[in-house]
Structure formats: structure tokens, C-alpha cells
Design goal:
172 residues, alpha+beta, Immunoglobulin-like, four-stranded mixed sheet
Length: 172
């Protein structure tokens, strides 16, 4: 069977369109989370703020905020004695301060819900949530008390259900 140039281009275009429409957290190995903020520093955020990924995928945080440094830091007692808001078996992380255009990556090898924050901006609600894998029955919010989290941080987290439904949750 011989395909015409038009058939080949049409098939390729269809595949390209399909890959662009599904915001493909499931398809790519590396998923980008942007650290952003207003030029005047009045508001900072992670984009997306909530995301669903497969087990074994990597997330790369990149600081796109030209006027500020940021961190991506797991809620874990190993990091500034913050409450545990991630699977117990998972490895904690802390990027240290990322200057504009710097990146930091983590590969997720344990299924569960991971909450993280930016050290200098946690009080402003600069937090995020990652759901890794397929949830089991009754799997909802992270295990553990809210601990000593700022009110703005607690209000900012998207629900696990919202992340499971949308796969990607952007800030409001």
C-alpha cells in the first residue's frame, strides 16, 4: 500500500492536533510548572497549582518571575519542620532559592498526594499540589493535620477531586 503525500501529512496533522488538545500530563515524561509573579511583587504563584501525573514522571519547576527568587519545597518535617503532606515513603525535596530562569526537577516514584510551597512566599499562598498515579477508593486529601500552615496557603490548595477531574488546575 502506498500513501500519498496528502494522506501522510493529514495523518501527521491529526496526530499533532490530538497531542496538543490533551494537555498531556499523561503523555510526556517531564511536566513543567512555572513559578510566576507580578512585576511589582504583589502576587506570586505556581502555574499550574494542581496537576495529575503518572508514577515515574518528572516535574520541572522553572522560575519565570524576573523580579523574585522562589523555592519548591515539599511539606515534610525534613524541610523546616513543616507538617508531612506527602506519602511517608516518598523522598522529600527542597530546591533552594531559584533565581529567574533557573529550574529544579523531581521524579515521583511513590503514588499519592504531594503538597509543596515556596519558602519566602508560603504566607502569600504560593503552594501547589501534585497527585501521582491512579487513586484508590477513598483517596482524597493528604494524610496528616494541617499543622501550622498559613491561612492563605490552606485556602490556595485545589482539591484532589478537582485535580482528578481536570488533570491540570490553574490558579483562579
Amino acid at each position: 500500500m502506498t500513501l500519498t503525500r496528502r494522506e501522510i501529512l493529514g495523518a501527521g496533522g491529526g496526530l499533532a492536533a490530538l497531542s496538543l488538545t490533551s494537555q498531556t500530563v499523561w503523555g510526556s515524561e517531564i511536566v513543567e510548572i512555572r513559578m510566576q509573579g507580578r512585576d511589582d511583587g504583589s502576587h506570586v504563584w505556581f502555574d499550574p497549582i494542581g496537576i495529575l501525573i503518572k508514577l515515574g514522571q518528572t516535574i520541572r519547576w522553572t522560575n519565570f518571575n524576573p523580579g523574585s527568587s522562589h523555592t519548591t519545597t515539599a511539606y515534610n518535617p525534613a524541610n523546616l519542620e513543616r507538617p508531612l503532606r506527602m506519602p511517608k515513603a516518598a523522598k522529600s525535596w527542597d530546591s533552594d532559592y531559584l533565581l529567574p530562569n533557573e529550574s529544579f526537577s523531581v521524579t515521583f516514584t511513590e503514588q499519592g498526594v504531594y503538597d509543596y510551597f515556596c519558602i519566602p512566599h508560603e504566607h502569600a499562598g504560593m503552594v501547589g499540589r501534585i497527585v501521582v498515579g491512579e487513586p484508590t477508593h477513598g483517596w482524597t486529601e493528604p494524610v496528616g493535620a494541617n499543622g501550622d500552615l498559613p491561612e492563605e496557603a490552606l485556602k490556595a490548595f485545589p482539591t484532589v477531586e478537582d485535580i482528578m477531574t481536570k488533570r491540570v488546575v490553574r490558579r483562579a
